[in-house]
From TrEMBL:
Domain GAF, first and last residues per copy: 27-170
Full protein name: GAF domain-containing protein
Pfam families in alphabetical order: GAF_2
UniProt xrefs under InterPro entries: GAF (IPR003018), GAF-like_dom_sf (IPR029016)
Domain of life: Bacteria
């Protein structure tokens, strides 16, 4: 995957064109394909990307864009019922977290679609949910590879960056006023942010601590993912225990911050 700075610049350039593309009548698939081609051009020869969109009832995924994935593959998996054995994308939408299938040939997640993927030469797939501004899942973004392997930390950060830009493009296609509404929401939060900056001795440390706790929660999800994808001979239970401990610690920190912020005395 490319360096984050190069990817960020390319996606920002793409963002500046989205509104004009939608106004002139380009389909969402056309817009998303351009996003994905930008990613693939920077990602190397072994990167085949796709975006699947979640149905309104939250039960099925269908292709929103897949510029280089073979049409025969897309036709055979054009409507995927989400679930724990519905490939990386179906499982990512089902569990609400990234699913990194390091070896499709052995990963149980690919139970219903393993043969199809292997027939087309795919050996690994990294999928992550796409969420709207309310945190609701609206689809998945995936990178298929013809080689096995786990994403690096840099690649995971790049995937997060891509999904954010893709989510914005999807929401702009569904609501022409999306950018204006988002800007209004940010303006509405501005007075609160100013109050925080005016009280550095108290609010800033608490906010920084909350941010650390929220990042710890995200790391717990990653630990679960690594445990799910790990070889059985590894200390899978240790990874699961570390994830659970991280969640409990983060929850305790956030609860204590909320308690103190409420102005009540600590018992």
């Amino acid at each position: 995957m490319p360096f984050a700075a190069a990817l960020r610049k390319s996606l920002e350039d793409r963002d500046s064109d989205v509104s004009a593309e939608l106004r002139r009548g380009d389909s969402l698939e056309d817009v998303l394909n351009r996003h994905l081609m930008t990613v693939e051009q920077l990602g190397g020869d072994d990167a085949f990307t796709c975006i699947l969109l979640l149905s309104p009832d939250g039960k099925r995924l269908s292709y929103g864009a897949a510029p280089t994935v073979p049409a025969s593959y897309c036709r055979a998996s054009k409507s995927i019922e989400i679930g724990p054995y519905a490939g990386s994308c179906g499982a990512a939408a089902y569990y609400g977290r990234p699913i990194y299938s390091t070896d499709i040939a052995t990963d149980p997640v690919w139970g219903n679609y393993r043969a199809l993927a292997l027939q087309h030469g795919y050996r690994s797939c990294w999928s992550t949910p796409i969420r709207n501004s309310n945190g609701e899942i609206i689809g998945t973004f995936a990178i298929l590879h013809r080689s096995t392997g786990m994403p690096t930390r840099e690649e995971i950060d790049a995937i997060d960056l891509i999904t954010g830009h893709v989510a914005d493009a999807i929401m702009r296609s569904r609501d022409p006023q999306f950018l204006a509404k988002r800007g209004a929401e940010r303006m509405a939060r501005a007075p609160l942010l100013r109050l925080v900056s005016d009280n550095l001795a108290y609010n800033d440390p608490a906010n920084r601590l909350r941010a650390i706790a929220e990042k710890l929660q995200a790391k717990a999800v990653e630990l679960d993912g690594y445990a799910d994808r790990s070889d059985p001979d590894l200390l899978v239970q240790d990874l699961k225990d570390a994830a659970e401990l991280s969640r409990k610690l983060a929850a305790a920190i956030i609860a204590q911050i909320d308690f103190i912020s409420s102005g009540r005395r600590i018992p």
